[in-house]
Amino acid sequence: MDASSANRGHSHEPGFRELFTPKLITTLARGYRLGDFRADAIAGLTVAIVALPLSMAIAIASGVSPDRGLITAIVGGFFVSALGGSRFQIGGPAGAFIVLVAATVQRHGIEGLVLATMMSGIFLLVIGFLRLGTYIKFIPYPVTVGFTAGIAIIIFASQVKELFGLTLATPEPGPILEKIPVLVDALPSVNAASVVVAASTIVIILGLKRLRPNWPGMLIAVAALSVAAAIFGLPLETIGTRFGGIPSGLPVPSLPEISLERLHAVLPDAIAFTLLGAIESLLSAVVADGMTGRRHRSNSELVGQGVANIASALFGGICVTGTIARTATNVRAGGRTPVAGMMHAAFLLLFILAAAPLLSYVPLAALAGVLALVAWNMIEKHAIRALLGGERGDALVLIVTLTLTVFADLTEAIVVGFLLGSVLFIDRLAKTIAIEHHMDFVPEDVADTTNGQRKPYDPALAADPDLVVYRISGPVFFGAASTVGSILDRIADQHKAFVLDFRSVPFLDSTAANTVAGAARKAAARGVRLFVTGAQPHIRHELHLHGVRPPQVRFLPSIDKAVAIVRRREGGEAG
């Protein structure tokens, strides 16, 4: 084999610079013109208009003040674009985090939430620099669909109080099974004004999406209902009445209270933030890749997300991740480089510097209407129908993940769904292994001359009591080891030689190698000669490590060679 052929067999291993250089630097180095800046500025403004009401709504639903959502979008969004591995990613608070953030606030307060966010940023940095981002894609699709749908259900349930303007006799519980009775008991306190405002918000957004899809429906709906509520003096809770308004600027950065006891207390929440943040951000980057034909750098993206979360926590923000809806809006609006995401953060900062007092008039019912639509759009209806109508295993993973997300815990749902999906994958992969007896297969270099019927490898071999040949195809690993073992157990005294052809085996793990080693010992004890043919070097190495080596076993390049040796009753060298 010449050098060029050898090189083709080895994939290029990217270096540190190639893996971790932010896309901002890459794109600017290739040239950045005025036309690019104009396109990025327009896209950044468009995304900022969408992000303004959404960031406040997500923060309120998460149990924190709306300004923390805006801080997250401004500070976190800037660093996600400046240091991340995607051209188009828009970072900020995400609906998927509402459940986790609200639970963390209930358990540990705002200080605990900020500390968990900072720890999550550090964990994301570690995951990125350890180059583990590539493995996030191994989360099964039914798991992502299931937990996204589950989160959507929880988000909607969390907005029922605001949608109907309910007055609760007791604080609203977090778990949905505890929440439902409390909401049902409060139904007599329905506020008609809240219902009208929430329903009007939904109708305006849907109507504009249908009639004027390029208009910022969320902002227009929230602004229109805020004006109407103020003019008519509707009896509604607003940002001003509940939170006292929005500060006109960013706070001074500061560290949360840090102690070993507090670090230990918020560790599970930080891990949950990390896991969900990594999945959500990389899924968003993949969506952007699909829309643009570009490729993101997953490990660089996680590093950018890590810095963004640390920075957000320093300013009192909440968890930052890549947001699919805002990222898709950026792409559709014509964003070309990460500058668009940075401009989105700059425009949001300008909005609160110039118009923070006006945000006090926004009704909470209008923001609840926005989140109700967000929850509905999060549910991938087509994907759910396809999974439920497809393989029963995929449907099971979807249902289990969705159920655990809604009624148990998001982290538990992801872990259980992943494990269940992995077991199903192992089962399916194990079934792909094929073991052919010499009566059933034809060598690749022998033409089939029996009018479409398979013929034996060698007619004489069919009647040979001294020799049996098996060809194994597919990956031989622990899931398929029992199948291979049952075949190897057929070694009997009436056969003087046993041939195992590994030519079509791309992979063999230690469990399967140990199974072959047991067969080799059994064959040696019975005086049966065992030949292994066509094994690739890495498979031979694995077999050698487990004791499958001469003189117990002979390694040969082909079945033909093994058959010839057996028939000559000669030993021969073991290749």
TrEMBL record:
Q: Does the keyword Membrane apply?
A: yes
Q: Which InterPro entries match?
A: SLC26A/SulP_dom, SLC26A/SulP_fam, STAS_dom, STAS_dom_sf
Q: Which residues form the STAS domain?
A: 457-566
> Which GO terms of type biological process are on file?
transmembrane transport
Report how it sits in the membrane: Multi-pass membrane protein
Please give the GO cellular component terms listed in this UniProt entry: membrane
Query: Subcellular location, in the record's words?
Result: Membrane
Q: From the Swiss-Prot or TrEMBL record, give the protein name.
A: SulP family inorganic anion transporter
Species name: Stappia albiluteola
